[in-house]
Amino acid sequence: MTEPVPPRDRKRKWIWWAVGVLAMVFGLMQLFPATETNPEVLGDLAAPPAVAKILRRSCYDCHSNETRWRWYSRIAPISWVIASHVNAARQQLNFSEWATYYPQTRVRKLEWMGRALQTEQMPPTAYLLFHPDARLSPDERAELERWIAASLNQPGS
Q: In this structure, how many other beta carbons lie within 10 angstroms of the beta carbon of residue 114?
């Protein structure tokens, strides 16, 4: 006759079984990595050096074809989320395709950038958690806002 398994041991077995299943699921996820792409740069944004430096540091990872794919962007399911966010950001605004935009499109995108800066939506808080160097100082925000205003006042922006 077998002795009953104490509840504590049953719970422990169930926890190890669940951990094993989760580890297998996580391992299987790695077989389906997200596609990390950096398409060709079709025409980069022409901006003063100070502005270009700020944009490259704080914006280009999502809003250009020059994304720096970090090590954690290769681990599913995080990789799926990051690739999705980068693709969506590139559709919204892509500095690597700036020269291909119609003048009116550039105006709209500059206006969007200005609103995003004023409301501090960009760079997003979630991005800043992993990239604190992308945080914009008040002076950098002001520099970008001045550049946007000057660009909007130029004919054929």
A: 17
Cis previous bond, 77, omega within 30: yes
Using alpha carbons, select from 72, 66, 156, 70 the residue that is nearest to residue 110: 156
Would you state the structure tokens that stand for residue 78, as one six-digit string?
Answer: 């995080």
What pTM does this model have? 0.79
Low-confidence ranges of the chain (pLDDT < 70): 1-7, 155-157
User: 62 and 93 in contact (C-beta within 8 Å)?
Assistant: no
Structure tokens at 145: 């806002």
- One-letter-per-residue 3-state SS of the chain: CCCCCCHHHHHHHHHHHHHHHHHHHHHHHCCCCCCCCCCCCCCCCCCCHHHHHHHHHHCCCCCCCCCCCCHHHHCCCHHHHHHHHHHHHHHHCCHHHHHHCCHHHHHHHHHHHHHHHHCCCCCCHHHHHHCHHHCCCHHHHHHHHHHHHHHHCCCCC
pLDDT tens digits, 67-77: 999 888 888 88
Assess contact for 32 and 79: CB atoms under 8 A.
no
For the chain, the domains span 49-152
